[in-house]
Specification:
Layout (H helix, E strand, L loop, with lengths): L6 H39 L10 H22 L3 H15 L3 H4 L16 H7 L4 H14 L3 E6 L3 H4 L4 E7 L2 E5 L7 E2 L11 H10 L18 H4 L4 H5 L2 E3 L10 H10 L7 H14 L6 H9 L6 H13 L8
Antiparallel strand pairs: 1-2, 1-5, 2-3, 3-4
Length: about 325
Amino acid sequence: MARQWTSRGVGAALRRNCLARLDVERERLFDAFAKLGPARAETRVAGRLAGLPPIPALEQRLFDLWIAHITEPMRARSDDLIEHARALIQLTRSVLVTQRETDLDIRDSFEDDDFIKRKMTILVSGMCNCEMSNLIVWSGLRKLGHLAYFFETGLADQVGGSHLLLYAFDRQGSAFVDAWSDVPCFHLSDFVPELPSPRARYLASRFANRPPPGVPDRSALGHLGLHTHGLYPADAIRAGVIRPSPDDDEHPPASAALACVNEAVPTPAAAIWADYVALRRQHLEGQLEQPARAYEQFAARDGLSSNLKAVVAALAKRQTPPSQPA
């Protein structure tokens, strides 16, 4: 008897075919970045993000494909906002280290040095600050269909600067989400920031005034602080505002990425940087069986700059994170 295809079966088959095509494209663009990225990773780790011109369509398209790749298993397991947020934070913390782990002076900003056009350079470098940490989580949550917004803390003069984290909510409640601090999710009672659209404000008025299940209130985390755990004071959060998504955050088609690859001119770099980009690609693609050991072995090599050695050593430690306080 001939097999009867249901609309659900046809839809699933089409999705599988689409994902397979995107996998092929992602591999092709990663191959291109492996040739163009080593010199950019070198200047990035040296603290000169703008040392070479961006390759924007390639970097933005490849970043989008990577986000689609990492979120697909999460989509299959659950549709829960907080579960997704914690999974994205765990992944982000495993593939990136910040100034909190390295003591390197990382001053990335959405407004500086074509940050958004250099997404893969920053990601492959392995080092970032709160902007990139939470850009990954924001991109993943939006890809998974959640309401998530960038949020900038206030009282900068009193706490030594502002901090970028995320505000997200659904029917279960609202939470601040932060891949940079040691506290992945928390709720702040009696506070809902001014959201950018009437629909979002309406939904928040109905659902955002309670913590989602399993998410602590900020008042229960009084023993954790900014300098010990990267957790900003409640007053600084209440004085903060929703921040617009970054300018120039484009999502170019495959044709634009390929044109960008064809126009780009590789810049020579020492072999150690090509090896580092290859290691980072394996990690980002989930192909390292023992990531900590791989980074430890790389850190033991000769020829690493002091900054690269610090990043790689911190990445090795990052693979076995301490227990989370929330």
